[in-house]
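#structure-requests
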Amino acid sequence: MHFQPYDAAGDHPNPLISNSVHTVVDITQAGWRAYDNHCTQQSWFTYDQVQNDFPATLTGYSQRYADGQLVKSSNTYGTSWYGYDDDGANTWVVRSINDLGTKTVNYYYTKEGQLDKIDYQKEVPAERFVHQYVYDANKRPVEVKTSLDNAVFTSNQSLQYYLHGALKRTELGGTLQGLDYVYTASGRLKSVNAPTLTNRDPGKDGYPGTHAGFKKDVFGFTLDYFTGDYVRKNTFIDTYTPNTINRTDGFQEQFSGAIRAMRWQTLLPAGASASTAFPSGMLQYLYRYDARNQLSEAVFGKAGPVL
């Protein structure tokens, strides 16, 4: 439960007033004494004015362009300070955390204003960790890299897109996993990989072809809206027919965009045995909606065999 203080006129304190402090919970005020046994966490937020309690051990951090910005927050676990550039973008956060010391996060942007790098603990080589983001000509992210020294980078994720702009495929850890995205003609997500975890996978990860060098998928799911919601030759993306669903009564086909059913499978770890809590094979949820198109029932169970 959160309590919000008001001024004499019944309004919230204005965070844009210079040096204003916004207190979410302050049980030290006499008016809150009734909640002493229930409200134990306090948070403070300070705006606009440069703070004089910034850690003296850090240099190169300036709280410029602070007007209208959050410059400091604190609670019983620590304190954070924030810096911005002249465009109002957050450029750094410094956190003083109880028992862990001071930690820094620096943010860098491209000339178009997109996030370029996140640099964690750049002052401490043993703790440093950098994320770098690469974009295409359409300003879409196409690669995420990481580094321990901001010099040598490792590619952790790459992204590919359909010609119409939707995400088509992501590749994680080089060839560790590939995720393939399939959409209906109306743009609704139909499938990520394939719930059978076989060569029905749109990207054929781990099977002969373009992605033979990838590990086989460990997860996949398909969403069903109505019969024939996705039809394309030479693919295995389909919608369950009634005789392959364990229960079909009242689960009408959905033409409004609501999901009729979801089927998925997660590969059990090597050496693991299936159990009630962690069953093997393809699982499913069937969804029922009321007259207002609100979800009214969800039935869970194992999916029938794929025909």
